[in-house]
Sequence to fold (238 residues):
Amino acid sequence: MAVDNKTQFESALLRRLHSLLLQIGDLEGQLARGPRQIKAGEGVVQASQETLDQAKQAVKAATLACDEKQLQLKSREDRIEGLKAKLNTASSNKEFDLLKEQIAADEQANSVQSDEIFEGLERIDELQEAVAVAERELAEKTAEHKKRVEAVENRMVVVQADLDHVRNELAKAEAEVPAAARSEYKRLTEGRGDEALAPIEDDSCGGCNQTLTTQMVDRVRLGFLTHCPACSSWLYLP
Ligand SMILES: [Zn+2]
Fold:
């Protein structure tokens, strides 16, 4: 290790540094979560919008199909009128019967068509109700999302202020790091963040659970800078 193993280091300072590094890690995590929460909310609104678009599309398609059926009904009615007019001028019984058959067939077809149109209109009513439900849902989700964004943004301001404060405190604490250890402290914390330091817990490293020798624990107790032999964290008393 680059650090002179005689370097004295107060556990209290390492404890404070570790606590501040942990707080910074936590606050940075909260800052990173904010945009993800907003993005997730946008996804919910987007899904509601798509549901509404599909519901509107279904009404449009059902209306078109129903309009088409009504046009067919009307044109068949016109044809029936035409056939009825020809009945009076039929030149033979055979032609008369043929006309009668055509009229009966068209009327039968229109009777079926009328039922289908009636069902189609009922279906359109249901689909329009689904559009209304989807519109309410979208309005709800949009309002919820607006609130969520406000809450997240407000919290981010607080978290950022806390982070600035803790970083400031960290800079003060780091100024107390003994000069002989400073460059290694920088190297360790820049690479590993709060994992650069670990408390001794039940004679083990709190970072990696490596069991420590009595000599190591004693060295830490005496204030000598000591690395965990397994994970290289600087050890301190909790
Ligand atoms: Zn360790």
